[in-house]
Design goal:
Elements (H helix, E strand, L loop, with lengths): L1 E4 L3 E5 L8 E6 L3 E6 L5 E5 L5 E5 L3 E3 L1 H9 L2 E4 L4 E5 L8 E6 L3 E3 L16 E5 L5 E5 L3 E3 L9 H13 L11 E2 L2 E2 L1 H10 L18 E3 L9 E4 L2 E7 L2 E6 L6 E6 L9 H4 L4 E4 L2
Antiparallel strand pairs: 1-4, 1-7, 2-3, 4-5, 5-6, 8-11, 8-14, 9-10, 12-13, 15-16, 17-22, 18-19, 18-22, 19-20, 20-21
Helix pairs in contact: 2-3
Length: 280
């Protein structure tokens, strides 16, 4: 059985209850596989990137038919704002039906709104939500939803991965998080890849069956991943990397360096660097 996430963020817990560790977050519009109807309130699910956890049933639209119909619709992803209000009507004075985080997916069933008198674009896009309801969002807040890797030249794709990671700058650290409302280290890098159509493993490790492979440190380029014990970062070039850290004084997404001469050098991480991974 399949289910669609209908809440802005659906927590995936390590146990079928709320008072336990957060394993991951499934975002609005994601389709999940239901593995086990565990309890009346929590069901065990698997994401399309093969991560498992216990989801509150209240966050889901359940049923294979609903999921199939949703998967068949053309999609857009919230990308250019940290959060996005889905309005009841195409005007700012309307009331927000739901507020979505960056990374949420909506269905686009109509072309962008136009002025009935002039034919000019109004800046609003009508969208459909997983429960079948409709709303409107600013067109400029949405972008292409990629289900396959973007067909760009290597250097351009590397830079796009880095630029996507930078969207999360100033986000605080949240264990298991993956949105601008809170993100952990692997959430940052996995979402940066996912928003570009590349599915990598959600945790801070290289896992067989996923496209990240080990390379030598001297071969590291922008977009590659730096691995430390229980931690992962994205290399940006010239010794700099971006990561989400719970370290006091940073407490979220920040930039550090591998080079001792740089003011943002973190010796504690450089000394523990134990691997580099690349998609390329």
């Amino acid at each position: 059985m399949k289910a669609i996430v209908q809440s802005p963020i659906c927590p995936l817990m390590t146990q079928p209850r709320s008072d336990c560790e957060l394993a991951d977050e499934a975002l609005f519009g994601m389709v999940l596989e239901v593995l086990e109807e565990t309890t009346p309130g929590y069901w065990k699910v698997r994401t399309h990137y093969r991560y498992e956890g216990y989801a509150p049933v209240s966050c889901l639209v359940i049923g294979d038919r609903s999921a199939q119909e949703w998967e068949a619709l053309p999609k857009k992803v919230v990308l250019h704002k940290n959060t996005c209000d889905v309005m009841a009507g195409p005007k700012v004075q309307s009331w927000p039906r739901i507020t979505l985080p960056m990374g949420a997916v909506v269905a686009v069933t109509e072309p962008p709104e136009t002025d009935p008198e002039t034919g000019d674009l109004t800046g609003w896009q009508q969208v459909t939500l997983p429960d079948g309801s409709e709303g409107y969002v600013r067109s400029s807040w949405l972008d292409t939803y990629y289900e396959k890797p973007i067909p760009l030249p290597e250097e351009a794709l590397r830079q796009r991965l880095v630029n996507t990671a930078k969207f999360f700058v100033r986000t605080h650290y949240r264990w298991g998080g993956k949105t601008p409302l809170g993100v952990d280290c692997s959430g940052l890098v996995s979402m940066s890849y996912l928003l570009n159509g590349i599915v990598i493993w959600r945790d801070a490790s290289i896992k067989e069956g996923f496209p990240i492979h080990a390379i030598q440190l001297e071969d590291t380029k922008a977009g590659d991943l730096l691995f430390f014990p229980g931690h992962v970062a994205m290399y940006m070039g010239e010794g700099q990397y971006i990561h989400s850290t719970g370290k006091t004084g940073s407490d979220g997404v920040t930039f550090n360096s591998l080079r001792p001469e740089d003011p943002n050098y973190r010796a504690d991480l450089r000394e523990k660097l134990n691997g580099v991974g690349s998609y390329f």
